[in-house]
Amino acid sequence: MRVAQIEAYGGPEQIQIVERPTPEPGPGEVRVRVEAAGVNFVDIYNRTGLYKSPLPRTLGKEGAGTVEALGSSVSDLRVGDRLAWCSVSGSYATHVIARPDDVVKVPDGIDVVCAAALMLQGLTAHYLARSTWRLEPGQRCLMHAAAGGVGLLFCQIATKVGAEVIGTASSEQKARLAREAGATHVIDYLRQDFEEEVKRMTRGELVDVVYDSVGKTTFDKSLRCLRPRGMLVAFGQSSGVVPPLDLRVLNDRGSLFVTRPSLRDYTRTREELSSRAGELLDWVAKGELSVRVHEVLPLDRAADAQRMLEARATSGKLVLTP
């Protein structure tokens, strides 16, 4: 098997393509031939050492492919089943070993690239809109990076439930994509002050919830966009780690809430994972949810894919094909 791994933390140049023996599944495991692997910011955090783990490490956690071999005690999967996942370490590879509890079956009619592109970002968008703060008709939210992978899916889900979405984006092209996904207003954060624009658009009423994956450079202004008892959902940190927060600020600005959720805690059981993924895949199959793939690259270009993502040069998903 071929894998994209790192032996030391650092930049994209640390990623190497190496060969390893193809593993056999143990009891309660399956071996999957990876046909598509999603590229995500968490992969970059693993590469830089922001999230540390033993080295060498094969990168990637998300993908889709076909069951190739079964270990003992596996009864609900078969060789040839098409699967997708978002929490199987080492997915930048031609093969992975997975547990049945960490995968979902891909329905006929949905290709593997779409399935791989949907899992991590789609499940994230789902829990953000339906669980962390359950959006209701008429509520107003601010979504940073609305034309990113999570943002485009979130805009569609939020609009589907009747919420009003204000998005931020860095270009007119990205703003157009966000509007097409359902955003009512889009702010060009390179030319406009998003805090002032939110106040103007809402006539000072502000928003119920802010979804912020940017982190350090947006956090304070995001808090100032919230109405009393609103919530800031900080689900990423692409611009850097948010400095320590004096909790009195939340009191002074209207008894605000802040949470730092993770997908792991919103898919803790197989039932919850299957329920969220099943709803997403059903929407895709019915044409009610569109997955935008920015580019599909071969595994050999894993370093290039991460460079593109770090530079925010994408709108939609980057996918590797081992």
Structure commentary:
With 322 residues, the protein is α/β, with parallel strands linked by helices. It is 30% helix and 26% strand. The chain folds into two domains: 2-119 and 267-321, Alpha-Beta Complex (Quinone Oxidoreductase, Chain A, domain 1); 137-260, NAD(P)-binding Rossmann-like Domain (Rossmann fold), CATH 3.40.50.720. The chain contains ten helices and 16 strands. The strands form three sheets. Strands 3, 5, 6, 7, 8, 15 and 16 form a seven-stranded mixed β-sheet that branches. A six-stranded parallel β-sheet has the order 11-10-9-12-13-14, sandwiched between helices. The chain has a three-stranded antiparallel β-sheet with strand order 2-1-4, with no helix packed on it. α2 packs across α3 and α2 (112-132) crosses α9 (270-285). The longest helix is centred in the middle third of the chain and has 21 residues, at 112-132. The chain starts with a strand and ends with a strand. The mean pLDDT is 95.
Keywords:
322 residues, alpha/beta, Quinone Oxidoreductase, Chain A, domain 1, Rossmann fold, six-stranded parallel β-sheet, 10 helices, globular
Provide the fold topology.
Elements: E1 2-6, E2 16-19, E3 30-39, H1 41-48, E4 57-58, E5 63-70, E6 82-85, E7 95-98, E8 103-105, H2 112-132, E9 140-143, H3 149-160, E10 164-169, H4 172-180, E11 185-188, H5 194-201, E12 207-212, H6 219-224, E13 226-234, H7 248-252, E14 257-259, H8 263-266, H9 270-285, E15 293-298, H10 302-310, E16 317-321
